[in-house]
Structures are given as structure tokens and as C-alpha cells.
Design brief:
The protein has seven helices and eleven strands. It is an alpha/beta fold and 281 residues long. It has two domains: 143 residues, 3-Layer(aba) Sandwich (D-Maltodextrin-Binding Protein, domain 2), CATH 3.40.190; 103 residues, D-Maltodextrin-Binding Protein, domain 2. The chain is elongated, with a radius of gyration of 23 Å.
Length: 281
């Protein structure tokens, strides 16, 4: 086989693989749709041909979204109610995990898309919003009136961090290394609300990402910086280019980007903070 023939052969194989993935996705969704019970109250199923056309048009299917507990609470809860009304044929399944484990979930094909911190160049993605690292202080703390807070100023305070699986502690420890400080970590917790509650009664300063919902009153959330540079990452919605992305997943990406362009978690806490550098898309 000459060189041109070999290239055409490889291109043909790629087309066949893509078609096989599309057929497998269609077959899996059609099989997964539950049978209606026979009886007076049963709703008749649409004809198979109609369901197949809806699937091809991206109007029906199973969408698996991976993200963190805090993003579910602060983003998806508000978004999905309207999304389901616009796309009644799309079944949404949420896969919850920590920010450090979401990339492997996406690479394994456990989910179609993930909402996670930027930094994984092997995936395609769209930017969503900046995530700042926040210091949550009791109202009686000496720094509670600050607009921003340098991590060096917290070197003597007991700190309440999130534990294994969360991405934000990695950003914090990296910033501490740059600042040449050893933080006084009192607790690493699996629950953001636990460290916030402890901070409220003066047990320490909680360090959380701005995606966590913080109630005003007993505490104040202040963006953390080092040498006038905020500590954090941009949040992205990502997908694996090596895997077939159904049309309804592509539509979800466009809609979540538009939704978060109008508003995003933590906006009220970062109004007076320096802008977080925007990565290239």
C-alpha cells in the first residue's frame, strides 16, 4: 500500500470508530429508557422512529455531569430547574466528586462533561468564572474589615482547611511555599460548612473556595492574596476530545457558559479583589 492509500485507510478507520461510538450511545439511551406500565394511568411511549429522530437532533439522551458538592449547591441547583424545562427529553445524572479526582473521572468516560478548576490541558474546555480562595473570619477577628488579606498575615492564626479530594488546599499550600511560611493547620475537614461553623465561634480561620455558599452574619469572607495577586483558579466546563460528545452535551456547555456569564458564585465577596488572571481558552 502506498503512502496516500495508507492515509486514506487511516481516515476511513477514524470515521468508522466515530460512527460506532454514535451508534453505541444511541443504543444505550434507547435501551435505558424505562418501559411504561400497562394500564389506564400509563403514558404511551413515543414510536421508536420518533425517539431515534429526537436522539439524532440532540433532544433526548442521558447527560452525565461531574462536579464538586459546592458547585452542585451554588450552580447546578439553580441552573437545572430551568434546563429540565427547556430539555424534557434529556435525563441528567450528576456525579459528585472532589476537584482533584474529577479529571480522572472525565478521562475514564464516567461523565460527558465536568465542571472543575482549569489546568488540565489534555481536555477541551470553556471558561466559566473565577474561583478565589477565601479566608472566613469571625466578626470579632482583627482583619474582619479588610477588602483582601495576604496569606503572610495569617501565618500565626490557627487555620481550618478542607481535606483530601478538594483542590483548594493545594492552591493554598502552593502559595504558602512561595511565601516561605509554614501554616498552622488546626483541622482538615471533609465539609466546608464544618470549617465555616468553627470559624464563626472563633476556633480559627477557615480557608475555602468562593464556590462555597457562605451566610452573612457571624462570619465575613475575605479574598486571599499574595503580593497583590489573588490565589485561585478559573472554573471550566471540560470534555475529553478523544470521546464522542453527544449534541445535547454540546448544548449543555453553551447554556451553562451563558448562564454563568450573568452571575456566578462568590461574586459579592470578590468585588474589591484584584482580577484573577484569565487563562487562554
Amino acid at each position: 500500500m502506498n503512502l496516500i492509500g495508507e492515509i486514506r485507510h487511516r481516515e476511513a478507520l477514524q470515521v468508522v470508530l466515530i460512527l460506532q461510538k454514535k451508534l453505541a450511545e444511541a443504543r444505550r439511551v434507547l435501551i435505558a429508557q424505562p418501559q411504561c406500565a400497562i394500564g389506564a394511568g400509563a403514558r404511551p411511549r413515543k414510536p421508536l422512529g420518533e425517539r431515534a429522530r429526537a436522539l439524532k437532533a440532540g433532544q433526548t439522551g442521558l447527560l452525565r455531569i461531574g462536579t464538586t458538592p459546592q458547585a452542585i449547591e451554588s450552580v447546578l441547583v439553580g441552573f437545572l430547574s430551568h434546563y429540565r424545562m427547556r430539555h424534557p427529553g434529556i435525563e441528567v445524572r450528576i456525579v459528585e466528586d472532589g476537584g482533584t479526582r474529577l479529571p480522572s473521572r472525565l478521562a475514564r468516560g464516567d461523565v460527558h462533561v465536568t465542571m472543575m478548576p482549569a489546568g488540565e490541558e489534555r481536555f477541551h474546555s470553556r471558561l466559566l468564572y473565577p474561583v478565589y480562595l477565601l479566608a472566613v473570619l469571625p466578626q470579632t477577628h482583627r482583619f474582619n474589615r479588610r477588602a483582601v488579606l495576604d496569606i503572610v498575615e495569617l501565618k500565626d492564626d490557627p487555620l481550618l482547611l478542607l481535606g483530601q479530594g478538594f483542590a483548594s488546599p493545594e492552591w493554598f499550600y502552593a502559595a504558602c511555599q512561595v511565601a516561605h511560611i509554614v501554616p498552622r493547620v488546626l483541622l482538615e475537614s471533609a465539609s466546608p460548612q464544618t470549617v465555616i461553623a468553627l470559624a464563626a465561634v472563633g476556633e480559627g480561620v477557615a480557608v475555602i473556595p468562593s464556590t462555597v455558599m457562605v451566610s452573612r452574619g457571624k462570619v465575613r469572607a475575605v479574598p486571599l492574596i499574595h503580593r497583590r495577586t489573588p490565589i485561585g483558579r478559573w472554573q471550566i466546563v471540560a470534555w475529553d476530545p478523544r470521546r464522542f460528545l453527544p449534541p445535547y452535551a454540546e448544548q449543555f456547555v453553551e447554556e451553562i457558559v451563558a448562564y454563568l456569564r450573568r452571575d456566578h458564585p462568590g461574586r459579592d465577596f470578590i468585588k474589591r479583589a484584584p482580577p484573577l488572571p484569565r487563562p487562554k481558552e
